[in-house]
From TrEMBL:
Keywords: Cell membrane, Membrane, Transmembrane, Transmembrane helix, Transport. It is a multi-pass membrane protein. One of its GO terms (molecular function) is xenobiotic transmembrane transporter activity. Pfam families: MatE. The chain crosses the membrane at residues 40-57, 77-98, 110-131, 151-173, 180-204, 210-233, 272-295, 301-327, 339-363, 375-395, 407-428, 434-460. One of its GO terms (cellular component) is plasma membrane. This is MATE family efflux protein. The keyword Transmembrane applies. It comes from Methylopila capsulata.
Length: 467
């Protein structure tokens, strides 16, 4: 506990956990960086894992690469929903309960989050297994690309309930300010997947190769092991909150859903942009262009973990401070984290725009694929900083429990991107005009989120004992 925390504490706050007191009192920028670095390490490791898996799948041929590009948007939707959207609802509810001194309520959020996420994971598994093929056909897949998409998709989505439960538990820990344990689980996953993915894809000795499905089995294996470990950890009493089984109640579920449900709409809209633009590119210019845009857009998807690296700490930081009534400090935290995210993402975007072949050439030497991907990165890359800035402020709004207006901003971005790309398709305009619509939507999103956050009043949530 810092000296500042002790001197600035009220008698009521002295009963709080030392980790919670640090969120309320420590200097803002160092506190964000201290909480963000485990997530940023995770981001780099996850990016490396995705690159390696895409590299190995790319060696199977253009059809396998195109098939994986088609599965990537719905798979990332599961990641974004379970980590950033519904997961943010869990983190926000835990943080606000702890900030208001309601430890028992925070424990209830954990168990209710696990139950809710398990049900959602099973529902999404059933949905993708039943309707995966027509979905990929509608996205422009046919022949070998469709076969590869289904081979990968069926494996990944059959085990998606493990991903959901793992992220429910990880989000609860992040809500307490603990970023290290969830980051450690992901680090373990990288160590596991890097050798396991090529082993299952190509086989070794008597072990037969599973093709593109092998990459899916590697992901499911990690999710199973990570889920098992976090279940044990949450039951062991080593965390500020603990997983205890109790009858389901509406109030803890509502605390998660009032943030998570709205945030899910944001994640769905974000992925809808990728899905629709991918389909339009495929129908307009063929499989090679589809693979090029999909591979280029994969870099944009990797900005989401980067924004999460800086944004995830903002959920407990803003939530805890809003819960304790420190609204001005919560705003300062939000904009500091968003500025850090902007700088990091803009550096990546500008580099990609200047040398797009350095990224695209990792996965294929096909000229048409590289041309399409390079056109996208040159136009959209410089707008990446605005995307990360807006995403970080979106995480801060989760912590404050105020997502109605941010959802409206995301809707504007969706309409600009999809509407512009659709018009370009209907008018048979050059491919770059679709990418320009996506880029403009990113800039509008970041600027609007900044203005909205500055003008929104975040009300405080008082502890029950002070009402």
């Amino acid at each position: 506990m810092s000296a500042t925390a002790v001197q600035g504490s009220t008698p009521a706050s002295l009963a709080l956990d030392p980790r919670t007191l640090a969120l309320l009192n420590d200097p803002v920028a160092p506190l964000i960086l201290r909480m963000a670095w485990p997530n940023l390490v995770v981001m780099l490791l996850q990016a490396s894992t995705g690159l390696i898996e895409t590299y190995w799948v790319g060696r199977l041929g253009p059809d396998a690469l195109a098939g994986m590009a088609l599965v990537f948007p719905p798979f990332m939707l599961m990641q974004m929903l379970s980590v950033g959207a519904m997961g943010g609802g869990v983190s926000s509810a835990v943080a606000r309960a702890l900030g208001a001194g309601r430890r028992e309520d925070a424990d209830k959020v954990v168990s209710h989050g696990v139950a809710l996420f398990a049900g959602l994971g099973l529902a999404f598994s059933a949905l993708m297994l039943a309707f995966g093929e027509p979905f990929y056909r509608l996205s422009g897949a046919e022949g070998g690309a469709l076969e590869a998409a289904l081979a990968y998709s069926d494996v990944v989505f059959a085990g998606t309930v493990l991903l959901w439960v793992m992220n429910a538990l990880a989000s609860a820990l992040r809500g307490t300010g603990d970023m290290l344990v969830p980051a450690g689980v992901v680090c373990f996953g990288v160590v596991l997947i890097v050798p396991l993915s090529p082993l299952l894809i190509y086989g070794f000795g008597p072990l037969p190769g599973l093709g593109v499905a092998g990459g899916g089995w590697a992901i499911v294996t990690f999710n199973a092991l990570g889920c098992g470990f976090l279940l044990w950890y949450a039951r062991s009493g080593r965390s500020v909150v603990r997983l205890t089984w109790s009858p389901l109640e509406w109030r803890p579920m509502a605390e998660i859903l009032k943030v998570g449900a709205l945030a899910s709409l944001t994640s769905i809209q974000t992925n809808l942009i990728f899905i629709v633009v991918t389909a339009l590119v495929g129908h307009a210019a063929g499989a090679a262009a589809l693979a090029g845009y999909g591979t280029g857009a994969r870099l944009e998807y990797l900005l989401i973990p980067l924004a999460f690296g800086f944004g995830a700490p903002l959920v407990p930081l803003v939530g805890t401070n809003v819960g304790a009534g420190a609204v001005d400090r919560a705003k300062r935290i939000a904009f500091t984290g968003a500025a850090l995210a902007f700088v990091a993402a803009e550096l990546i975007g500008v580099a990609a725009a200047l040398v797009p072949a350095a990224w695209l050439g990792l996965f294929s030497a096909d000229a048409a694929m590289i041309d399409a991907g390079a056109a996208y990165l040159r136009i959209a890359g410089p707008a990446y900083g605005f995307f990360a800035f807006g995403m970080a402020l979106y995480f801060a709004a989760q912590g404050a429990g105020r997502l109605g207006r941010p959802l409206a901003v995301t809707l504007v971005r969706t309409l600009l991107a999809i509407g512009g790309a659709a018009l370009a398709f209907v008018w048979a305009a050059p491919l770059w005009t679709m990418f320009a619509a996506v880029s403009l939507a990113l800039v509008v999103y970041g600027v609007a989120m900044g203005l909205l956050t500055a003008g929104t009043e975040w009300g405080a949530e008082r502890p029950r004992g002070r009402r």
